[in-house]
Specification:
The chain is built from 13 helices and no strands. 80% of the residues lie in helices and 0% in strands.
């Protein structure tokens, strides 16, 4: 009950921030901006987003290849479903459902969670480095150092928990207690990636870096659709900074916080607030539509299988 109430409060808070931002920018100005949208670039954006999904699924599948056999198509379905669920959860914790789907496929929780968090570690590291560079570009030196110090401290805690077996075992016993045994194999899998799959790890890292640049390019395409052309590296830095902020679970998947931060940062390079608000509104709508379509297909598929099972039993 408390978890549901907290989730509801996060949704409400995110909507308040988002609506407050739109009110501040001006609803009429945003609508007027959106009416000028070039659908060609929106179509390119959707195509690029699908390519990005395929790359990220490929990266995780590559990490999985030595610990669990699964077809790329099946894993891609799991990945899309978990991404969709993550969009409707605070701090994208719904992404963790990927571990649950892999468990249903036969992969134990220990190795499945190790694969997932190792992949996330590489992704967050790239976003952290890009954010750090962005802080020095957009903020004063003292402000950049303060923010970067906080991010490094948080990332260090994440890294210590991920790579320190003793600390992780202690936390696992304290938090999971009787369920701690279910996560056996986590340490061995992390050690396996670092010591025996260095080439794979480097390849996944470079592929994740390439994917991050493509994600920034996708944002740039939406700016193009509104006849605005900010510098690509500025878009890349802002994408990294806003994504790091969206990981903080104070709203639904960073809703409102990401948009407000983007309006502020793009304003520093001369992009009008209605343009930025319009860009992120379009991105938000497209992402939620893709997530809803994905989850609807999954639900229809499950219902169809249940009907088939019932008909066979009868």
């Amino acid at each position: 009950m408390k978890i549901k109430l907290l989730t509801l409060l996060r949704i409400i808070f995110g909507l308040i921030v988002l609506l407050g931002l739109f009110y501040y920018v001006g609803f009429e100005k945003i609508i007027s901006t959106l009416l000028k949208t070039n659908p060609f670039f929106i179509l390119l954006f959707i195509v690029l987003v699908i390519i990005i999904f395929m790359i990220e699924a490929f990266n995780y599948r590559l990490l999985l290849q030595d610990i669990h056999k699964i077809s790329y198509f099946q894993f891609f379905k799991y990945y899309l479903t978990s991404w969709s669920l993550g969009l409707f959860s605070p701090g994208r914790v719904g992404d963790l459902s990927l571990i649950y789907f892999l468990k249903k496929d036969g992969l134990d929780l220990g190795r499945g969670s190790a694969m997932y968090f190792f992949g996330k570690f590489l992704s967050v590291f790239i976003l952290l480095v890009a954010s750090g560079l962005g802080f020095f570009v957009f903020l004063t030196k003292s402000e950049a150092i303060k923010l970067l110090s906080i991010l490094i401290a948080l990332f260090a805690i994440f890294a210590i928990i991920l790579f320190s077996k003793k600390i992780r075992q202690t936390l696992t016993r304290l938090i999971l207690r009787k369920y701690a045994e279910n996560f056996r194999g986590f340490s061995k899998t992390i050690k396996f990636y670092i010591q025996k799959r260095k080439i794979t790890t480097i390849f996944v890292f470079l592929s994740t870096l390439f994917k991050t640049f493509l994600q920034a390019l996708a944002v740039l395409l939406v700016f193009f659709s509104l006849s605005e052309s900010p510098p690509f590296m500025a878009v890349f830095y802002i994408f990294a900074m806003t994504n790091i902020l969206s990981l903080i679970p104070i709203t639904l998947s960073g809703l409102g916080i990401r948009e407000a931060t983007s309006v502020f940062l793009y304003g520093l390079i001369g992009i009008a607030a209605p343009i930025t608000a319009g860009v992120y509104f379009l991105i938000m709508v497209i992402q939620f539509l893709l997530a809803i379509i994905t989850l609807s297909i999954v639900k229809i598929n499950i219902s169809f299988r249940e009907k088939q099972t019932l008909s066979k039993s009868n």
